[in-house]
Design brief:
The protein is mainly beta. It has one domain (2-11, 27-116): Immunoglobulin-like, CATH 2.60.40. The chain has strands spanning 2-4, 33-43, 46-55, 61-62, 66-69, 76-80, 83-87, 90-94, 102-103, 108-116. Strand 2 and strand 3 (46-55) form a beta hairpin. The radius of gyration is 14 Å and the shape is elongated. It comes from Salinactinospora qingdaonensis. Residues 1-19 form the signal peptide. Keywords: Signal.
């Protein structure tokens, strides 16, 4: 199941291309970039998921940050292609330096995680 998210992507740095000013937190579009959440597997005690950040048009991003709040008592157990931390329901994920820190125009970056509890139908990323 793939769900386009209703709110936005919080960026840690300004776009690298001249794509206009950053919007306020809570807006989905950042210089033509968007994020999608997909629960990729579900089992009795947990789930795995993938988040993909895509940049269309002429904008690109450096040093992105993606944050969300789990709707229940879910707890991260593992993540890949990102550095993630959790405090209560709040999760913050950042890139692995040069490996995936820059998203070029027309490019995308994906990272994933496993967590305990039930998979949300969607996550509100900001």
């Amino acid at each position: 199941m793939t769900a386009a998210l209703a709110t936005g992507l919080l960026l840690a740095a300004a776009p690298t291309a001249a794509a206009g000013p950053l919007q306020q937190p809570g807006a989905l579009d950042r210089s033509g970039c968007s994020a999608d959440y997909e629960a990729t597997a579900v089992w009795a005690s947990g789930f795995s998921a993938q988040i993909t950040i895509s940049c269309a048009g002429g904008g690109s991003l450096e040093d992105w940050t993606v944050e969300w709040d789990f709707p229940g008592d879910q707890q991260l157990t593992h993540n890949w292609n990102s550095e993630c931390s959790q405090s209560g329901p709040h999760v913050t994920c950042t890139p692995l330096g040069d490996f995936n820190g820059t998203i070029p125009p027309g490019g995308s970056v994906s990272f994933g995680f496993t967590a305990t509890g039930s998979a949300p139908d969607d996550l509100v990323l900001y």
